[in-house]
Amino acid sequence: FFITSTMTTIPVDETTALKCTIDDFDRAQEGHIIYIMSVSRGDYGEVTKVSKRYSEFAALAQDITTLCGINIPLPPKKFFGNTDRAFLEKRRTALQTMMDVIANNYWLSKTVQFKVFLDSSHFSRKFSRECDQGLRMFLRSEPSWSVTTVIHHCGWRSNKLYAIVENKGYTVTEQTGEQLLTYVRIPNAPVMAMEAIGSTLKYISGISHAFIAKGSFGYLHGTDTPAAVMVRSVAPRASLRDVINRAKTFKDNFCQKYLSSKRRPLDVSLVALYGRQILDALKFLHDKGLPYGHLHAGNVLVVNDRLCQLTDIENGILGLPCIHQSHITTLKKISTLEQRDVYCFGHLLYEMWEGKPLNAAFQELRGQDETSRILEQLITLDGIRSLPTIDHLLSESFFKDVELGQVEKGSFKLSARVKEALGAARDASYKAMRTRQLQYYRCKKEEEKKKAQKKKEQQREREKSRHVKSSQQTGNTSTEVHATVGGFVVSDSTTSTSSSSTPKTTPNTTNTTETSPPPPPPPSQPAQPPPPQQQQAPPPPSSSGRGNLLGSIQSFKKGGLKATETNDRSGPSV
Q1: Deepest of 325, 401, 424, 516, by most Cβ within 10 A of its Cβ?
Q2: Whose CA is closest to 375, among 514, 271, 228, 234?
Q3: How far is Cα 547 from Cα 541, in angstroms, rounded to an integer?
Q4: How far apart are CA 50 and CA 23, in angstroms?
């Protein structure tokens, strides 16, 4: 539901899940320790920084425990040594576990306490008081109704109020006795013009259909902060979700009712019966051009074991987001309003069959029974790509063979002006749904580009690091030792990674491959002095024993050579 703490600023979608990561801890100026969290709305929402003390985490755990009656894994308090870094790191991990337990729970994540804790700029605990004030203002303007009991948070919407009311007889209604009044704030961006909402609410309260809960009063209250008021009969068995969870009364807090371990799925015969009645009601709404989109177990009232009825039909024209909107936004194959309702029907069918809501956009199934076969068409990834129509579902034998008995044909009378307004509301609902989907996939694509760019940068950094390391290893050599002995240049070098090397010698001549002296010049020409010799740079070491060879050459002495006699026969013979 689009709500804000001031009701006049940019709206925030209440159905989008809040996620948090405790990044670090720090010491505040006052001396206490604060934990710094990154809070995001949805998968690709804006990330904000939130700082909380341990005492605030403890207060959150206590509030939820008191509200729901379940234990939250809060790390224990420590009086001494609670500023030690190792202890704070351990506590940070434990607090992250606690927040994950709440955020990943289907119902705990929808509590006002959790939303206010992470996003106090858009959520407030004053919502209930503001709705109470609005309800009192409505009763002053409509003295025909008197409130018996005000009910807070029996549903998951933070800004919706329920009350048991009675009609004092100043207005003519077909229904008497206790009735259920709903008071809900209208978002800043409804799908219908505000001046047309009041008239449409009156017409919606007059819908006559066997499987749609009939209203007795519809009204648009307020101008600065407008709210929709609708009065209906109290369902004897409460909602279908209350029946599945075996709730004692619908007036309890929704967490207390739906976190119970007493829940159980419905019999297959009831699944087929209620499913058939709900499909008939959906077909009627679409035939009359009413946008709905709010089908879930909480909006199905159980009159008796053989009859259920849809309720909160007005939500479609108020622009309120449905409980499955975050899932629908991620599934671009849901491209029509009828497909949206069919998808929501799949979630409802799953909850009736399994006894618990589906906390995911899709679910893969392996069953072989007829119910599993129908669910495969509705909530599996392959089925969502080509969702069936309402008429196709009604033609399935699972629903077609259900005996409904005598059912009167429904009626919904509209003026030409309201019919035109409903057409505009239907177009606006479709445009809003597709816009959210396009924005989601645009953000997803940009995020994937950022991840790919970051991956490339990391890969370049790793390659650069490997190149620098390789260069350091190649250039990390010891100084070379050069020695000249008897006309030879000897070089010795060892690297930092090798303990031995190969000796290399360079003779003091331009050609090191000759082993015999060159032939003498002709007798008529004197011998020319040899050109100055150039020392060649020693090649890199290739084998061991170089140091020993260098030592042998350095200790060489000419005096130790034996004298020889030379027989020169190079002269010409006459």
Answers
A1: 325
A2: 271
A3: 11
A4: 10
